[in-house]
Write a structure and sequence with these properties.
The complex is a heterodimer of chains A (540) and B (75). Chain A is α/β, with parallel strands linked by helices. Chain A is built from 17 helices and 29 strands. Classes of the chains: A alpha/beta (540), B mainly alpha (75).
Chain lengths: 540, 75
């Protein structure tokens, strides 16, 4: 059977405006870190991305090639993303906080042949370039001259690049569009591959959940390297011609409130961690700003505690809708949304085109109110099509007709879903999934450390914080200097989000007889509860 | 002297030997200076200068100049 063609994601976002006479309307307003503004029309985004698309083509990028973007949020990131898609190449957006080891793992796994980055991040790439097996070219967005034949100035190339680029608007629905890396509990990060056909789920979920009216202004605060930032910060609002803002700066309560007030934001999509960080401000702080234009707040990444929900609803005087999806699902699966009364602490109900179920350990339907594995009936258009180079791990994520999320949840008798926890050892800190093995491997390279295990522990701000249990070598004493060494090692090799926030020195790491770390024992130690059956504990 | 030592701390924490600071430098101008790496920075400064910041102080710095003023007062 021949699949019906779909719009290339780039065309879905940028192609419709010309037909409907909207090409000069605002694609987004860019708020710089100093709060100065710049408006970009669809026509400008189209032209900039055409120019970059021509450059990529001239550099030999073709269908299926992997091109990584290693930038913090910037207009160039958005132009580059569309330029890659116009060449039918596959985009991979990487967090600018990634360290050397995290970059090597991802860039080699996806076989990146070209990286788009900026001068201040270039040093990280140059340090590891000999380890990057497929890399042919680095494009730097803010240097005036080429450094050599390998490291090229994007501005210099742009000056001679035409603003037109011919590409086929329609494409096979299963053609890969972008790769989203996610952490598992063992081994290396996994690249979830998403396709151009995802656009129908993305558009449908955006309409059903956000219900944005023509005059409303939308702000998604997520980093574009995160699935939320890419799908609901770039693709969905642009495909829907929604008026939106982007803010380039890091989290800063005053700057954020200024953005909400000055830009008269109506629909705000953020994360529980951000709301919890705002909660740290004194109540008087919020009365300095007029945020009365906000009509709806949405939240994703970790469970939104009822306490935070009530606080945000009171402070911003509007409803707060939590929702759930994953890097693998590609679009929102379960959501609170207008039209369904919110039950604080619940993720809401499955979207109209999604079938969600709770399955027990035998993969049978669990009774309402019973905890089980949160699964989705497979086949929704934005479902990832594989983990790059790991088809066996992909296969393990399915049982019969169901995709297994790796999360535990409960469905109540009225069809609301309630998140419980991960079913594996992956740590969800501030909405980022962190693989404990990756952190442990890096810490073990520190000469003072003999053995290590990390767990996630409840945290009032981050949802979970990373706690490291360390066995030190003989005659080594714990010190703040050693703590700093651990922090900087993880920060510079993996990411700042993977840095343990708490360190505990122990004489032994509990393991079973096959050497597997017994994290439940560590969690019990941390919570001061009974560790349960210790019969499998390795004799030390 | 303090500014030189502070620059060295920033360079170590953010793994970037090209960092230069002035009083107006803010987190948005230093690659990787986010809320998580801010804790690393505070610990590194406390060790380097043999001081301790209060929680209020840690949250109050709007730029490097304010940070340096606070360090000065504690030395």
């Amino acid at each position: 059977m021949i699949n019906q063609l779909v719009e290339n994601l780039a065309f879905a976002c940028l192609g419709g405006q010309e037909r409907t006479g909207l090409s000069e309307t605002s694609a987004f307003e860019w708020i710089h870190a100093d709060l100065s503004k710049e408006l970009f029309s669809y026509s400008q985004v189209n032209t900039y991305s055409n120019k970059i698309a021509n450059i990529l083509k001239n550099l030999g990028i073709t269908k299926g090639d992997r091109v990584s973007i290693f930038l913090q949020r910037s207009p160039e990131l958005i132009f580059s993303f569309f330029a890659i898609l116009k060449n039918e190449a596959v985009a991979c957006l990487l967090f600018s906080t990634f360290g050397e080891s995290a970059l090597i793992d991802r860039l080699n796994d996806n076989g990146t042949s070209l990286i788009i980055t900026k001068k201040s991040l270039l040093k990280k790439i140059l340090k590891i370039k000999d380890a990057l097996i497929s890399l042919r070219t680095i494009l730097v967005i803010d240097i005036d001259e080429h450094l050599d034949g390998f490291t090229l100035s994007l501005p210099k190339l742009l000056s001679n690049s035409p603003g037109d680029f011919k590409y086929t608007p329609m494409i096979e629905p299963d053609a890969p569009a972008f790769i989203q890396y996610t952490s598992g509990s063992t081994g290396k990060p996994k690249g979830a591959v998403h396709v151009h056909g995802a656009i129908s789920s993305i558009e449908q979920s955006f309409r059903e959940v956000f219900q944005i009216k023509e005059e409303e202004i939308y702000w998604c605060t997520a980093d574009p390297a995160w699935i939320t930032g890419l799908v609901y910060g770039i693709v969905a609002p642009m495909a829907a011609n929604v008026r939106q803002i982007h803010f380039a700066g890091n989290f800063n309560a005053e700057h954020w409130l200024n953005c909400l007030q000055n830009e008269k934001v109506n629909v705000w999509y953020t994360a529980p961690t951000a709301l919890r960080m705002l909660m740290q401000e004194e109540e008087g702080f919020f009365s300095k700003f007029d945020c009365s234009t906000i009509k709806r707040i949405y939240s994703v990444g970790e469970p939104l505690n009822p306490e935070v929900y009530r606080w945000a609803k009171r402070i911003f005087n509007c409803e707060v809708y939590d929702n759930f999806f994953q890097s693998e699902t590609g679009s929102i699966m379960i959501a609170n949304r207008p039209g369904i009364p919110v039950r604080p602490g619940s993720m809401g109900k499955p979207l109209n085109f999604i079938e969600a179920v709770i399955l027990d350990n035998k993969m049978d339907s669990a009774r309402p109110g019973s905890q089980g594995k949160l699964c989705f009936k497979k086949g929704w258009p934005s479902m990832f099509i594989t983990y790059l180079n790991k088809p066996e791990v992909y296969a393990e994520k399915f049982s019969g007709n169901y995709y297994i999320t790796g999360d535990l949840a409960v469905e109540d008798k009225d069809g609301f879903f309630w998140y419980i926890s991960r079913s594996d050892d992956v740590i969800n800190t501030a909405g980022h999934l962190v693989d404990p093995f990756e952190v442990e491997s890096s810490l073990l390279e520190i000469e003072e450390i003999n053995d290590v295990a990390v767990i996630g522990a409840p945290d009032a701000i981050l949802h979970e914080k990373i706690v490291a249990y360390l066995c030190l070598r003989n005659n080594i004493e714990w010190s703040r200097e050693l703590e700093l060494k651990c922090r900087l090692k993880i920060s510079n090799e993996i990411s700042t989000t993977a840095v343990p926030q708490e360190y505990k020195i122990v004489s032994v790491i509990p393991k079973n007889r096959s050497g597997k770390i017994l994290r439940r024992v560590l969690r019990a130690w941390h919570e001061g509860t009974d560790p349960g059956d210790l019969s499998t504990l390795e004799e030390q | 002297m303090i500014s030189e030592q502070l620059t060295n701390v920033f360079r170590e924490v953010f793994d970037d030997n090209t960092i230069t600071l002035n009083n107006q430098t803010t987190a948005d101008q230093i690659e990787g200076w986010d809320s998580m790496s801010h804790i690393n920075l505070i610990i590194a400064i406390e060790i380097a200068f043999g001081i301790e910041f209060t929680n209020e102080e840690i949250r109050s710095f709007n730029n490097v100049g304010e940070m340096q003023q606070c360090i000065n007062k504690k030395l």
